[in-house]
Amino acid sequence: MSDAVLDIPSRNRTRRSRSFWRKPWLLSAVLLVVFIGINILIQPRFFSAYALGNIITTMLPWMLIAVGQTYVIFGGSIDLSLGAIVSLVNVVVVVLITALGGGPGAMVLGMVAGLLLGTLCGALNGFLISAFRLQAIVTTFATSIIYGGAALVVLPQAGGSLPTEYFTVYSEGFFGLTLPIYLLVALILVAAFVATTRYQKHLLATGGNRQAAFQTGLPVRRIVMGAHAIAGFMSAVAALCILGVAGAGDPLMGQAFTLGSVSAVVLGGTALAGGWGSVTGSIIGAAILALINNIIFFSGIDYIYQAIVQGGIILAALAAGVFASRRQK
Amino acid sequence: MSDVTGNHREGAFQRAFAFAAGTPAIATLFGCVVLLVAGQSIAPGFASLGQIAGQLNVAAILALVAAGQGIVILSGREGIDLSVGATMTLAALLAGNTMNGQDGGIAPALLAALAAGGFVGLLNGLGITVLRIPPLVMTLGMAGVITGLLIVVTQGQSSGSTAPSWAAFVTRPFLFGLPGVLFLWLLIIVLIEAGLRYTRFGINLYAVGSNDFAARLAGISVGWTRILAYVACGAFAGLAGAVLLGYTGNIFLGSGEQYILPGVIAVVLGGTSLAGGKGNYVGTAAGAFFLTLLTSFLTILSVAPAQRQIIFGVILIGFMLLYGREKATR
Amino acid sequence: MAAVLEASDVAKRYGAVVALERGELRLERGEVHVILGSNGCGKSTLCKIIAGAVPADGGSVVLEGRSVAFRTPLEAQAAGIATVYQETGLVPTLSVVDNIFLGQEPGKAGGRIDRKARYARFEMLIGRLGKLAAHLDPDTLVGDLSIDQQQIVEIIKALSREPKIIIFDESTSSLDRAQVADFFALVRALKHQGTSMIFISHRMEEIFAIGDTVTIMRNGRFIDRRPVSETSRDELVNLMVGSALQQMIEARQSHRQPGKPVLSVARLSGGKAQGISLELREGEILGLGGLHGQGQSDTLLALYGGITRRGGEIVIAGKQLGGSTPAAALKQGLVYVSGDRGRAGALRGRPIIENLIVGILSKSSKPIAERGKLRAQVRPVIDQLKLKFGRLSDAIETLSGGNQQKVVVGRGLATGPTVLLLDDPTKGIDVRAKQDLFALIDELCAGGMAVILYSSEDMELIDHADRVLVFNTGHVVAEISREDLSEFALNEASLKTAPAHAEQQPAHV
Description:
The structure holds three protein chains of three kinds. By secondary structure, chain A is mostly helical. Chain A is built from 14 helices and no strands. Chain A has one domain: ABC transporter involved in vitamin B12 uptake, BtuC. Chain B is 72% helix and 2% strand. Chain B has a two-stranded antiparallel ribbon. Chain C is of the alpha/beta class. Chain C has a domain of 234 residues: 3-Layer(aba) Sandwich (Rossmann fold), CATH 3.40.50.300. In chain C, 34% of the residues lie in helices and 25% in strands. Chain C contains 17 helices and 22 strands. The termini of chain C are far apart. Chains A and B meet through helix 6, helix 10, helix 12 and helix 14 of A and helix 6, helix 12 and helix 14 of B.
């Protein structure tokens, strides 16, 4: 914004400083620096291209799903079926590509179908919630049962395999950088663009005060449904990314992502009540979750301690995050 | 002035009908009858008394978990406890190791299960009210911590075992050919319903769930009411864990997980508002019975687990479409 | 002159409840049209139908010669009708500019918002509001603004739509006197530009200050339409209440002799209230006056423990007030009743009886609730308040606003308080309910109960208070005794500024 537009300088100054301290992602950014620091301590070669590439590949699906979840939560809703959508898309794509013969055409068709399916699943959630005014938590839990069941019907056990081209392209990428790095950059650019749009503003308005948004004339139902569709799409993209690493289908693969995505969103400073937060924060939140896993892996902590350390750290971070955001208000 | 003024009086029949159609608990019980009739016509014996007793027996565990969940949901502010599964496992393992197959250990084991559950609930309640962590997040984190602890302690192995008398109380005929746990359930239904209506805590719980600022101004300690709700929820999960131990004999990590979300669904089917302040336990109990019957019904249809799962989800959505709608945005 | 908007025979039913039976409105170009009526008369429903917030069941609305039936607020806005709601019209988590331009942001390619253009338009808009919006920062979150500032944002938001018709739904209720004057200047300017305005207000003075025409409604029906210049207060009140009800409450002319002191407060701070000291005697009604939001509510809330107390000593009936929670205050004989039922009073979805007994239940701290006994305990209060209800087991929201407020008052009175704190208790309730309420309060005061009454209506203070402490910016700036109490005195005192030293002498009796 330019100062010429606003003629009162003092007013302008207080505004800038205040809005800086109220950035939702501030605390998570500090945490990110801390966890990167710990990572460097226990893994000196953390910044090597190889190690960095590896960790970005692990982080990416988490980030994609967390960003999708963020939009849903912005709108005052929540989607607990994103993990199930990941599973369903995952197996459908594998089965479809195999059925179509596994050529390049089959791969493109399979991927497009997967993206479409994910978007539709998300849109269905949004439709049920906004058209029939159902509680988001329970509704998406119910659809997660359905999507998860469908995944098991399509592929009862982990298996199937993709053509090798699929994961070589994914892991080798172009110009010396892996595909996940390009995708991460694309994700950040798209999220930054969306942040300047009317849609995000309207979504936040809907989550902040649905009644007010409705009275103002915003199509609140379509807005919420759109956010769910976006989340479904993002989950589908994540499923494709996971396939790029795993190379085979797994109907139970998505389970961990649902709650992980909610944790990442809350870690990123976004209010679970809706209407306030930032996508940047969620991306950082997802990165923190991945770094915590990395720390546990490299510090040689026994596998059996992983769950407890992870749970404890997340809980502490959340408590700190909630506490800090309360102080700011 | 009298309680009933003329213009509010309607026909008793009309009122009863409106009550049934507008009361999810009644609709859920009606759904149970439909399932029993349909099951009986497909597999004769499905609706026999022995079968029904067996179904009730299974439903009792779910109903105990749902009892606590219902109390927490009533307390409002997006109250929900997703740590009940982990708490159940914790309590069941504790009880199993305390009993260790000896009848003499039953009383201390039950106490330990209740105390452990209550303690977890206390931590949840403190985190949610004092630190103001959102309930969903707090209880999920708690579930992670408990599960982690259990993995460390048990090294992933099953340990402990039920006392024979406890197993008999839970599974074998005890009185009138019914297992003892059903009488325990009945007692709990009466206690909760009476507690909600005739104790200060019950009335305060509804008040807090309905409007917590107004409740505070009316002299209610909102924080303690909520904390107590989570303690009760944890204790019920602990009790459910002990019953689960009696039912299955020994406990594995993750034994309790399968009860978390069906517990929430039972509460919803029973007509408790997820917004808080509205609902009762009779409905929740009916919801638990309905879910149990539905599972068996799909089993006798020889529907494979994956398909069964899909049907389960569709029916849940159907019920929510009927009763779960929130107030319209005007 | 042709009417801009003409509504006739408009009806609306919610289930079995008839909210509007025969709504009628004829709005001319460039006029301020007041709709007057007690609660439940259907005026809000009529406005909502015109604004497209609820669909009508019958009747017709003709806008500039064209028959319209808006299904959404958006359609009404597109047709040039904007509404300034009293509440829930803003998004607390968004900034002031975000809210004002919500849904009509100046755009750039790709659905982006043109921020510069938006700030420029904001500056233009607040230029039109003059002093009223002088200190409004466009980037503050609306949730951080005070209620009056939020109302101003609502007004700007409506103006930004350049509407032909604006509906003001009690827009002045949260503004103080100076702001109301600025607001009326704005209304006059809009009038000159040909904008028509529908104005709902419970303040009689405002109707005469700004209205051109007044439509009176009662029980969902249109009763009459009068030019404001050709009517009087008494006539309007008579049309509103219908029967030959005495229009004004018979004030307690006899000056009762207050008893011994029951409450003394020294240097109490909390919220906006700064170092408040006061003393209260048995049977006395102490009024708190002044412009809206000068720390009167916060004084009462801090006294009761509803908000955090920052220092101060409170002695009630000779004993130091222990504890800082409402529960502790209640046990020592204090009761607080807010006029903001939705937020601070009604337990929605709960039966009337539970709404009534929670107070005594908290005070007794017995773990078992003997419902029969409790019911008997609240019965006298129900009768005294002339509560109109179906069954005691019906949910509180089945009652009218006035009766809901009676329940909230009854909850407090059932505990048998020594001191009753009333925080603008008659906000948005009808004349009859007000009368019932004050009749009972006067009666209880005669029996020795002491009352501190904050009211945003001067007449209420004049009619009922034994003396009035006038607030300005968190301080008591004047004390007016009963003999000197008049609208003039209250107005004059409310504009006084606080003394340089924050400490107040205890107001003498």
